Amino acid sequence: xxxxxxxxxxxxxxxxxxxxxxxxxxxxxxxxxxxxxxxxxxxxxxxxxxxxxxxxxxxxxxxxxxxxxxxxxxxxxxxxxxxxxxxxxxxxxxxxxxxxxxxxxxxxxxxxxxxxxxxxxxxxxxxxxxxxxxxxxxxxxxxxxxxxx
Length: 149
What we know:
- By secondary structure, the chain is of the alpha/beta class.
- It has 5 helices and 5 strands, in the order E-H-E-H-E-H-E-H-E-H.
- Strands 2-1-3-4-5 form a 5-stranded parallel sheet, with helices on both faces.
- Helix 2 packs parallel to helix 3.
- The longest helix is centred in the C-terminal third of the chain and has 41 residues.
- The N and C termini lie far apart (46 Å).
- The model has no long low-confidence stretch (mean pLDDT 86).
């Protein structure tokens, strides 16, 4: 698996060091910035596979950053991570075509799950389907061998 490059945008980025370490130990590359304006500059100059975006930041908030980001790179997946549970914010983010919406506090496993859903969903389904098929095939073969005895 090639390393997935994450841009994590959060004004409290220093509190997320353990999350970065957790993801990096699993092969993800993380880059951080603490505001929307810097994030947009980074997106223009560096290639990322996904953006983890806080909603509540000074300057450009998460939704404003999301809207600008989607103008620059409409297909770049964005996972919104926020303390804000307001339904209107969720609807606005979903309308802007986010990939996922997580409520803080998040633990590293929640982030990992969201990333796996995003990048490995099809592979995981295919692997499970193959496994189920092989299991069923073995069962049929055993049933047939019992009939032939």
